[in-house]
Write a structure and sequence with these properties.
The chain has four helices and nine strands; from the N terminus they run H-H-E-E-E-E-E-H-H-E-E-E-E. Strands 1, 2, 3, 4, 5, 6, 7, 8 and 9 form a nine-stranded antiparallel sheet that branches. Strand 3 and strand 4 form a beta hairpin. It has 214 residues and is an alpha+beta fold. The protein binds a DNA duplex (13 and 13 nucleotides) through strand 3, strand 4 and helix 4.
DNA sequence: ACAACGATACCCT
DNA sequence: GGGTATCGTTGTT
C-alpha cells in the first residue's frame, strides 16, 4: 500500500447518508490501518447496517451510554465496541446525534498480510479477517481507536471511489441477508456482502437471499 | 457489589 | 451444528 492511494479517501459526505446505502456502498472499498510507516488492510466484502432509535438491534436503540457514545458522533467517526472480550468496528453514518452506523464484518486481505497473520496468530488467509472481531485483531484495532475520525485520521482510513462514481460497486454483485448474531429485528435484510466472495463469512443458509442493487 | 448478557470465535463432533 | 471461553458494559440490589 503506498501513500498515493490514501488521497482516494472517502469524504464525510459519503457517510452522511442512510446506513443502508452506506453499507452497500462500502463493499469494494479499502479499509486501511497504519502500522509505523506501513498501511495494512484490504477490501471490504461484508457489512451490516444498524439504524438509529427505530432499530432494536442497534446499540443506539436505548440511548447514549459511555460505551456507544461515539456512535452518536459525526458521520465518518470510527465506533469500536467490545463484545465477548473482542473488538468490532463500525463507521458512523448520518448526522451527528442520530446514532446509526455500518458494521464492517469481513475484509479480503491485501496489504500487510504478513503483519495481519502475525496479529491474528494464524496463517490461513481465509481466517485472517472473516468476521468483525477477526478483522479488528488483524488490523490491531481496539477500544483505543474508538472515536477516531475516518475522514481525517492518519491511523485508520477508508479509501475508494466515492459513491457517485459507480466504477467499483457496479462491478460487484451484492446480496443481502438477515444480520448475524442478533435476536431482534431478525427479519430485516440489513446484511450485505459481495456475492460468492471467498472471504465472506456466514453459513450457506445465509446466502439463499435475492441479489440487490446498491 | 453483583449477575446477566452479548452485532464473537474457536474447537469439537 | 453445538458448546463454551471470556470480559466489558449495563442494569439491578
Amino acid at each position: 500500500m503506498n501513500k498515493d492511494q490514501l488521497e482516494n479517501r472517502l469524504p464525510r459526505s459519503f457517510y452522511e447518508r442512510s446506513p443502508i446505502v452506506v453499507a452497500q456502498q462500502l463493499l469494494g472499498k479499502s479499509l486501511l490501518r497504519r502500522v509505523r510507516q506501513q498501511w495494512i488492510g484490504g477490501r471490504i466484502v461484508e457489512t451490516e447496517a444498524y439504524l438509529a432509535a427505530e432499530d432494536p438491534a442497534s446499540h443506539s436503540a436505548r440511548g447514549r451510554t459511555p460505551r456507544n457514545a461515539s456512535m452518536f458522533g459525526p458521520p465518518g467517526t470510527l465506533y469500536v465496541y467490545t463484545i465477548h472480550a473482542k473488538y468490532c468496528l463500525n463507521a458512523v453514518t448520518e448526522a451527528a446525534g442520530v446514532g446509526s452506523a455500518v458494521l464492517i464484518r469481513a475484509l479480503e486481505p491485501i496489504w500487510g498480510i504478513k503483519r495481519m497473520k502475525k496479529n491474528r496468530g494464524v496463517d490461513d488467509l481465509r481466517r485472517l479477517a472473516r468476521g468483525p472481531a477477526m478483522l479488528c485483531q488483524a488490523l490491531g484495532i481496539d477500544r483505543q481507536q474508538d472515536g477516531i475520525d475516518l475522514v481525517d485520521s492518519d491511523l485508520v482510513a477508508i479509501t475508494g471511489s466515492p459513491s457517485e462514481d459507480p466504477s467499483i460497486s457496479e462491478s460487484l454483485t451484492v446480496t443481502s441477508s438477515p444480520r448475524i448474531g442478533i435476536s431482534q429485528a431478525t427479519e430485516r435484510q440489513l446484511r450485505f456482502f459481495v456475492d460468492a466472495n471467498w472471504y465472506v463469512g456466514g453459513r450457506a443458509s445465509d446466502h439463499e437471499n435475492r441479489p440487490t442493487r446498491p
